[in-house]
Amino acid sequence: MAGPMSEIAIPAPPTTPSTELALYNEPLDTPGVIPKHLKRAATAEYPLFEILQRFLLRLQPGNAGGELEKFLAVLALYKAVAPAYRHFKIFITWALTSQVTIPEHDPVAREVSTWMASHVIGKSMMTRGAMIVSTNSMDHGGSLNMFQQMITQDNGAGGSDSSETQCLPPIGKRVFWVGFRPFLFSRTGVSTGRHPGPPMNNVLDDKGEVQNAIVLRTIGWSLQPLKDFVKTCHDFKVHNKTGTTTVYFSSGSGRDPYTGGEWSSVVKAVRKLDTIDMDEDLKADLVHDAEYYYSAESKRFFADCGIPYRRGYMFWGPPGTGKTSFSAALAGHLKCDIYIINLATGDISDGRLHRLFLALPRKCVVVIEDIDSAGIGREQGPGEAPKPPGTENTNGFPIPGIPTGPPFLPAMTMPGGHNAQSNDRRKRNMVTLSGLLNAIDGNASAEGRLLIMTSNNPDILDEALTRPGRIDKKVHFGKLMPAAAQGIFKRLIGRAAIATLGFMEEQIEAFALQFSAKVPADTFTPAQVQNFLHSCRGDPEKALREIDAWVIATRGKKPKKEGSLVPPKQGRELDDDDDMMDSGAYSDGF
Ligand SMILES: Nc1ncnc2c1ncn2[C@@H]1O[C@H](COP(=O)(O)OP(=O)(O)OP(=O)(O)O)[C@@H](O)[C@H]1O
After folding, report:
1. What does DSSP say about strands 244-249 and 172-178: parallel, antiparallel, or unpaired?
2. Which positions fall inside the BCS1 N-terminal domain (predicted)?
3. ipTM over the 0.85 cut-off
């Protein structure tokens, strides 16, 4: 008899096994067949794998598939192997080549770019991209170097004022050859957007590569070929510099990417030293001192004595006596660039000043213009009122002939020893005395620069700023003396008169002597006399006819502030009664 047990229904095994079961039931060791669960895992991890697999299927003979599908299959294959190829390439590059990385704000980067622009970008027919940088240069008749001539747009103003553009290697990679050796030039960059130029600090991108840098690479394990190439670029720059000086400004538009965006740059024809009318012995002494400072012997001396390798001059005197012009001519003579800081613009803080100094190359002339007008006066102790200029001379400067202006009002002394006047100035100028001292010779400040401070009234400066070690030479630039008046006459009128009006050299000598006798000694600045001679349009007889009337009319007039090194386009607006020449808009010290 059948018992109840026989009634119990036993569930039948599923006819269609679940996918999971099927997967796990699959034999693992069938030769030549990849288990499905492994395929699943792979396609989940790399979706491209499945696409690739499907297209490969279509490629098999007998499989119907259009040409497009075949093409897509190849493309998918490429996509799949590309990461592996990238790693392989990185490995091979690492194993077979050497490289140097140059931060973009380093002067070496500019030298390499200049060489690239001239030898690769400018010459190759294959160049399809370049970075164009404007330089707004004033051509004073000197020859511009090849690099600047690559793209020149004359604005038609008589051919003397031209807007220059420089053509630099763009961001990206470029292979080039030096002799039989290939090099790879890569320029990387990101911009923060604050300045048109890249930021000062280098940053790494998500692949760990340095941004805002130039990377040079070549075949082999030695760095020597790369070092030799960098030296070639340096030599090219020095050789090519003949005839031009790059002037960098702390203010103005057109930030220079090679200074971390801190400086604006303009290319100028070199002002020759013999165009500066000043005491010849004084000039020779300064030139000799600066040359000696950059000699190997002097570098050794500084190193042996453990003295920071720096030199400082203070040029002082009335406006328009050639302080800035001489600084520029000296930079041209030393074949280095000049960096101009104008603290009086009020847009430079202690931090910015520090960054400006950090971006300086090792060899350069730095000019801090009109330092007294920046408001960094002498720090006064509590209860000490400022003394009127002319009654004290704590810096050891004689101050003959300098207009002292209205007598100083006693300043209100504030708690903490600062008076209201100096506090007010600090607020306006944002640079403090300690910030300035820190920038010019703090621990982080670059060595190798020649610092020139210009001042109309050095007596109001703090002694800390002018002490020996910071200022090694104090030079007075005075008003025109007869010998300099002759020189300026011959230079501005004589040369042209001989060349175009047919005057003889002896005649010009005689005219110059007469002219200098008519210009009272130590009364006018060279800039004033220069402007008068310009108005005579190269006619020596006209100059002699009109000089007496000009002396009477001009004597007693306070010389106008001249020679701002801010380029004319960025300079101050001219007043209605300003004559262009008189304003210094054209006579910017070069
Ligand atoms: N000694 C000089 N020799 C030749 N040119 C001079 C001389 N002094 C001034 N000049 C001319 O006068 C103009 C202004 O000169 P510069 O800017 O060098 O004067 P500065 O003393 O620096 O004036 P500031 O104190 O206003 O800066 C320039 O065009 C320059 O050519």
Report:
1. unpaired
2. 73-276
3. yes
Ligand 1 center from residue 527 Cα (angstroms): 6
169 burial type by CB count under 10 A (0-12 exposed, 13-18 middle, 19+ buried): buried
Q: Residue 54, by phi and psi: left (phi above 0), alpha (psi -120 to 50) or beta?
A: alpha
Q: What is the 3-state secondary structure (H, E, C) of 418-452?
A: CEHHHHHHHHHHCCCHHHHHHHHHCCCCCCCEEEE
Measured from the CA of 275, which atom of ligand 1 is nearest? 4
Q: What is the value of pTM for the model shown?
A: 0.61
CATH number 3.60.21.10 given to 271-476: no
Nearest atom of ligand 1 to the alpha carbon of 587: 29
Strands (E), 220-356: 244-249, 264-269, 311-316, 338-342
Indicate the domain borders of the chain.
Answer: 34-98, 104-241, 271-476, 482-559
Average pLDDT, 10 consecutive residues per value, the chain (590 residues): 48 50 51 65 67 67 62 77 84 86 80 84 61 47 33 32 56 85 82 41 58 86 92 82 77 62 76 88 94 92 89 92 93 90 81 85 89 62 42 38 35 40 52 86 78 88 84 92 91 87 89 93 92 89 92 76 38 34 41
Strand bridging mode 244-249 / 264-269: antiparallel
Instruction: Ligand 1: list residues with CB < 6 Å.
Output: 276-278, 319-325, 369-370, 454, 456, 477, 526-527, 530, 561-563, 584, 587, 589
- Token match 């106008």: residue? 560
